[in-house]
Amino acid sequence: MAELLWSLQDSQLVARFQRRCGLFPAPDEGPSENGAGPADGEARTPELGHLPAAKGKGAGEPANGLRRLAAPQLVMYIGQVTKEILKWPRPFSPPVVKLEKRVIAEYGMPSTHAMAATAISFTLLISTMDRYQYPFVLGLMMAVVFSTLVGLSRLYTGMHTVLDVLGGILITAILIVLTYPAWTLIDRLDSASPLFPVCVLVVPFFLCYNYPVSDYYSPTRADTTTIMAAGAGVTIGFWINHFFQLVSEPTESLPVIQNIPPLTTDLLVLGLAKFTVGIVLILLVRQLVQKLSLQVLYSWFKVVTRNKEARRRLEIEVPYKFVTYTSVGICATTFVPMLHRFLGLL
After folding, report:
1. Closest alpha carbon to 73 in 298, 232, 219
2. CA separation for the pair 346, 341 (Å, rounded)
3. Positions marked active-site
4. Do 108 and 83 contact (CB within 8 A), yes or no?
5. Residue 18 lies in a domain
6. Does 42 map to a domain?
7. End-to-end CA distance of the chain, in Å?
8. One domain for residues 120 and 99
9. Which of 74, 185, 241, 337 is the most exposed place for a label (fewest CB within 10 A)?
10. Which residues, at least 6 apart from 172, have a Cβ–Cβ distance to it below 8 Å?
11. Is 26 within the bounds of a domain?
12. DSSP reduced 3-state for 303
């Protein structure tokens, strides 16, 4: 078993997959990438001797809405934190060709892309199979294909080993099985109490602010905060819609079995129009809230506005990211449907 795990973690396995896909290193690509430190914008990759020790460590539709958010949020946070605890390196270059320079400063195990793809596709399948009429086998195949393609893409870009991808899928499968009994309860929490939004904000913010400290800066904490904040914002948006009765409640008892409408030209044009209107409003809100929150934090901590490095400070990065993307989530689930309704797009 140990030999199998080591073989799945071998960078040569990733490199062979890349070569089969037609991806080869540039002629002038040197071997210095693995030795780059944080000053060069890359990770200080742990030595192989550290691995044995690491191995010893152990839009307005209410029904099923929160469960689709809770699972991806949970697996992403656990995945990101696990990276910081295990500190397993990404595949080595050479022989691997790395196509994403921004996330080189992150560790590899597990692949959070594989975790997110598995969580989203399979929670969507489980949540809709008793609500819409479609062949379950087809839905299962689509979920498997989507998760597989995302996992293979992480190998193609040189960001993860095979073990990273398989580990992410396995962790997600375990989390889905363990949390499945609570899904119905989670769906009912959004209208249970006026204090619910407070919990939705405080808990994710606390988790993000107390994110494991790294030896050098990497975008992991910022990405985690973005994910948690967006999920919190969408959850609060659902709560606002129900608490203030901004959406019509179903007249029939759930689950309501529906047919998936056929894709027509009119439906496609309507979808594109709704998407365009929504994305423009979301981008405007994002830019406005981000600018205002940064100005307030810079003034509070007496930081020069032109100092771009100040955004990386814990007391600035986490609050501004959290406020910005919580606002984005609320906008997407509350104000965008209201604008659609005002424009006659619903």
Report:
1. 232
2. 5
3. 113, 160
4. yes
5. no
6. no
7. 55
8. yes
9. 185
10. 75, 114, 115, 118, 119, 122
11. no
12. coil
